[in-house]
Amino acid sequence: MGEATEEIRDIAARKFRLRCAVVGEGPPLLLLHGFLMNRHAWDDVIPVFSQHFTVIAPDLPGFGESEKPPPTRFAYTVEAFSECVADLIAALRLGRMHVIGQGFASAVALTVAADYAEFVNRLVLVGPHVYTAAKSARVFDWPILGTFLFKQLYGRSVLRSYFRESVFSPGFPLPTARIDSFYDDFNAPSARESAFATMQAMQDTRSTVARIGRVKAPTFVVWGASDKLYPPQLGQRLARELSAERLQIMNTGHAPAMEDPLAFTSTVLPFLRRGKAT
User: Fold this and answer.
1) Alpha-carbon distances, residue 266 vs 11, 161, 256, 270 (angstroms)
2) What is the pLDDT of residue 274?
3) How many Å apart are CA 275 and CA 92, to the nearest integer?
4) Are 180 and 156 in contact (CB under 8 A)?
């Protein structure tokens, strides 16, 4: 089977421009990237998923090539992101979708499933930001020093170190070119401001926890055994509280789709293909 052609679209959601990659044919599958990443975080799994689904991979507001409104126009909370995602789904007119969220975007995906259940068929949460703030982000919560560090001193080498030490498991070869592309998208005043506002909003997870019981979509929780940002022990708690169909602990760090794309797609595909999005 040949590789599907990728189409890049700009779609308005909550009046903001979102850059999306759309590729493949079949039931729709929405991929939501993690913090300090962009849609290219999914590049290694899209070729497999697009053989079975119409894959939509957006840059979330404030990230990648999407619009980066100031915090005065966009709140950068989980609720604000979920409203944009719901608008995006409605604008695509593809019907109910399977949704996969990574890290902080898992909280967004969970919120969409709770608040806009009509849009979500099956839900996959990968290393979810649900119960607690990521350990590496807490220093930036200091009001003055944190702002200065993040907006002024967070350089390319720091981002590489963050991925090496916090995102990937020990010994995993760093995908430097991709991380540098994340940094290039981040290294502008508007993008840094958006990312900092997102990180501040991420510190309070109570609204996400409160929505867990409202999620009705069949759910699959995936966690990396070596996840240093969110302890994998939380996976059992989340799977239990969601009444998830399945919990899978993978032999990776925080980003299984980048670290072991073959194992990730092999793990997730059977779950997604059991439920046909309509």
Assistant:
1) 30, 29, 12, 7
2) 85
3) 20
4) yes
CATH of the domain at 188: 3.40.50.1820
For residue 251, tell me if it sits in a domain: yes
Per-residue H/E/C for the chain: CCCCCEEEEEEEECCEEEEEEEECCCCEEEEECCCCCCHHHHCCCHHHHCCCCEEEEECCCCCCCCCCCCCCCCCCCHHHHHHHHHHHHHHHCCCCEEEEEECHHHHHHHHHHHHCHHHEEEEEEECCCCCCCCHHHHHHHCCCHHHHHHHHHCCHHHHHHHHHHHHCCCCCCCCHHHHHHHHHHHCCHHHHHHHHHHHHHHCCCHHHHHHHHHCCCCEEEEEECCCCCCCCHHHHHHHHHHCCCEEEEECCCCCHHHHCHHHHHHHHHHHHHCCCCC
Q: Is residue 1 part of a domain?
A: no
pLDDT at 149: 65
How many structural domains does the chain have?
1
β-bridge mates for residue 224, sequence order? 250
Instruction: Establish if 278 belongs to a structural domain.
Output: no
pLDDT at 198 over 60: yes
- pLDDT tens per residue across span 134-165: 554 444 444 444 566 666 778 899 899 999 99
Q: What is the pLDDT of residues 41-54, one digit of tens each?
A: 999 999 999 999 99
**pTM for the structure as a whole:** 0.93
Range of 80's domain?
A: 6-273
| Residue 47, in any domain of the structure | yes
